[in-house]
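If your schedule permits, I should be very grateful for your opinion on a structural question. I have a record of one protein: its chain in single-letter code and its fold written as discrete structure tokens. Would you kindly read the sequence against the tokens and tell me how you understand this chain to fold? Thank you for your consideration; the sequence and its tokens are set out here.


***
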Amino acid sequence: MKRCMIVDDSSVIRKVAKRILSSAEITVIEAANASEALFMCQAEMPGIIVVDDSLPDMTAEQFIREIMVLAGPAKPNVVLCLTELNLGSVMRAKRAGAKGYILKPFNRPLLLDRFRALDLAA
């Protein structure tokens, strides 16, 4: 079973993403901030992490770098989630290890397409 983590301080965004992605093949876990997500990743690293660009306790770039150190050789696919396109944020996230980005508000087809693209690349 594949694991996906949604890291966002908005419970609405987490619930929408979880509802879209949850299935018999995918387990979706949620974290409200970077510290909670890092703690959860220490126990079991998900294959895909969707992370909000504006976390309350650390920058997305910093979070992605921490995840990449924790992950060891099997790195997760990280997607940055933005409310508006900010090329600076996207480039910093990619340099830290992110594979791409998605804009909020996302819908079912957009999120599933992004997930499938990452899943195929893994």
Summary: Residues 2-121 form a domain with the Rossmann fold fold (CATH 3.40.50.2300). The chain has one domain: 2-121.
